[in-house]
């Protein structure tokens, strides 16, 4: 059976007890949301959440349970490129002004321990759209123009799952999951509309696509930054009464840093700060479009980054974290995350539960009320109860990769960097040492042994699993 036909189950049917409301309106009361979140947590815990694979069953893929399409929540997923943990005002940045992104946090939830499984572009994007570690999909490194690899057609993406249930879907921005043929582009992975570039804008040639048509063989990154906004807002307006999923993988603040003239010198943090403030402006325009269309209260908006910052001159900040892009120290794999859904999520919530970008696919399908048939084994689990304000353990383990190799593992307060290239193991207590400065491997030998054994078990599990 193809992975396109199946997914794991997330939530069971929610009760309907007020005949005066439509089924969709009954389903999305605050009480039922929190009850569903708690139930999701119980289901996840009972099924062995800690990164272990699980198969759950249900009769069929059914998003919305027959509810009116206009009552289903919309989704906007904005993904920054190489943005650091310390680059936003809501994460402690003072030189760069990010009022729109900070506003998402003020109106919703900020996760302080949000992770990506690898510290480069392509693996994170594959994990976001599939809910699976990149080693399972083969998307383990940043694709270059000459690469022929792509996200396998057998993988069921978030866009495909939502589109099957009537959602309008669009990818506007940087794809970076395969480009060798039209079959590798977003239109073949569940997106009705694609406007964007196939990979990072520092690579050549840099074609600009609308769907499968090449508009130009040499895109202008600065002009593209402005086009992203107009394309995104136009899609929101075109959706009309249909529920929609807008995936907006932005190209800033990845190098080369470029901004339109009106943003040059705007920030107190140089050209890098200008690029981040441009990114924030883009977020603000999308939020404005949602409000103008009257759909902002029932639209879940998520903002995060694909990995940590590139350091050096005109580079970003990982804040208190060690390392950055290309590193599995916290600065490379812990990224800023903010989420708002005004109809349901309480404002100004901060949660330190470790959550992964792997969890977004099951979470979004959870929010949309999806149940599913037997499917590909997911590594992510719904984080709905975390976003709803619960302090809940979601993962026993999170794994971090360098290409197709596991090189680090987080378990609760402990983060183990496995020995490699002649370097010994490193163990850090993240609750006491967020900057990973004090190596406790020599003092906590039992913890090191336990996590090394767990890493080996996971290696064997992935090798034997449906990859």
Structure characterization notes:
By secondary structure, the chain is of the alpha/beta class. The chain has two domains: 66-369, Alkaline Phosphatase, subunit A (3-Layer(aba) Sandwich); 413-464, no CATH class. Helices cover 28% and strands 16% of the residues. The protein has twelve helices and 16 strands. The protein has helices at residues 23-27, 30-46, 99-107, 121-130, 134-137, 158-163, 221-239, 270-292, 330-333, 360-367, 384-387, 445-464; strands at residues 74-80, 109-111, 114-115, 168-174, 193-197, 208-210, 213-216, 244-249, 299-305, 337-340, 349-351, 355-356, 398-402, 405-411, 414-417, 426-429. The protein has a ten-stranded mixed beta sheet with strand order 7-6-5-4-8-1-9-10-2-11. Helix 7 packs parallel to helix 8 (270-292). The longest helix has 23 residues, at 270-292. It starts with 22 loop residues before the first helix and ends with a helix. Residues 1-62 have low confidence and may be disordered.
Q: Please tell me what the overall shape is.
A: globular
Low-confidence stretches: 1-62
Round the Cα radius of gyration to an integer and report it: 21 Å
Number of strands: 16
Assigned CATH class of the largest domain: Alpha Beta
CATH superfamily of the largest domain: Alkaline Phosphatase, subunit A
Number of helices: 12
Query: Reading side by side through the largest sheet, how are the strands ordered?
Result: 7-6-5-4-8-1-9-10-2-11
**Count of all domains:** 2
Question: What is the helix content?
Answer: 25-40%
Which CATH architecture of the largest domain would you pick? 3-Layer(aba) Sandwich
String of helices and strands: HHEHEEHHHEEEEHEHEHEEEHHEEEEH
Question: End-to-end span in angstroms?
Answer: 14 Å
Derived from helix and strand composition plus strand pairing, the structural class reads alpha/beta
> What's the average pLDDT?
86
CATH fold category name of the largest domain? Alkaline Phosphatase, subunit A
How much strand?
15-25%
Largest sheet: 10 strands, mixed
């Amino acid at each position: 059976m193809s992975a396109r036909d199946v997914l794991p189950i997330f939530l069971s049917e929610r009760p309907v007890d007020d005949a005066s409301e439509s089924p969709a309106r009954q389903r999305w009361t605050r009480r039922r949301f929190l009850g569903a979140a708690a139930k999701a947590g119980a289901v996840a815990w009972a099924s062995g959440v800690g990164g272990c694979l699980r198969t759950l069953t249900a009769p069929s893929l059914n998003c919305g349970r027959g509810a009116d399409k206009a009552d289903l929540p919309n989704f906007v997923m904005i993904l920054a490129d190489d943005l650091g943990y310390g680059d936003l005002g809501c994460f402690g940045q003072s030189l760069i002004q990010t009022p729109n992104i900070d506003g998402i946090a003020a109106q919703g939830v900020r996760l302080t321990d949000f992770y990506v499984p690898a510290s480069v572009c392509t693996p994170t994007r594959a994990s976001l759209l599939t809910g699976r570690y990149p080693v399972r999909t083969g998307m383990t490194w940043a694709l270059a123009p000459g690469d022929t690899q792509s996200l396998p057609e057998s993988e069921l993406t978030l866009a495909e799952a939502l589109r099957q249930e009537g959602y309008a879907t669009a990818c506007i921005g940087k794809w970076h999951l395969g480009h060798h043929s039209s079959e590798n582009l977003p239109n073949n992975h569940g997106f009705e509309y694609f406007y964007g570039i196939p990979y990072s804008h520092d690579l050549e040639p840099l074609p600009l696509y609308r769907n499968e048509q090449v508009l130009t063989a040499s895109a202008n990154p600065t002009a593209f930054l402005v086009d992203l906004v107009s394309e995104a807002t136009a899609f929101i307006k075109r959706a009309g009464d249909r529920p929609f999923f807008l995936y907006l993988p932005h190209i800033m603040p990845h190098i080369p840093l470029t901004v339109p003239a009106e943003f040059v010198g705007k920030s107190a943090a140089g050209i890098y700060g200008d690029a981040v403030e441009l990114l924030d402006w883009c977020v603000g325009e999308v939020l404005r479009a949602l409000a103008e269309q009257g759909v902002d209260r029932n639209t879940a908006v998520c903002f995060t980054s694909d990995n940590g910052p590139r350091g050096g001159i005109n580079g970003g900040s990982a804040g208190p974290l060690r390392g950055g892009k290309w590193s599995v120290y916290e600065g490379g794999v812990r990224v800023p995350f903010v989420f708002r859904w005004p109809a349901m999520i309480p404002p100004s919530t901060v949660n330190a539960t470790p959550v992964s970008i792997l969890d977004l696919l099951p979470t979004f399908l959870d929010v949309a009320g999806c149940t599913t048939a037997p499917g590909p084994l997911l590594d992510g689990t719904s984080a709905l109860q975390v976003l709803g304000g619960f302090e809940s353990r979601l993962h026993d383990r999170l794994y971090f990769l360098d290409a197709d190799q596991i090189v680090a593992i987080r378990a609760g307060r402990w983060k183990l960097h496995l020995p490699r290239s002649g370097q010994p193991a490193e163990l850090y207590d993240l609750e006491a040492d967020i900057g990973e400065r004090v190596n406790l491997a020599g003092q906590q030998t039992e913890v090191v042994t336990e996590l090394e054994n767990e890493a080996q078990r996971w290696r064997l599990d992935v090798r034997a699993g449906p990859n």
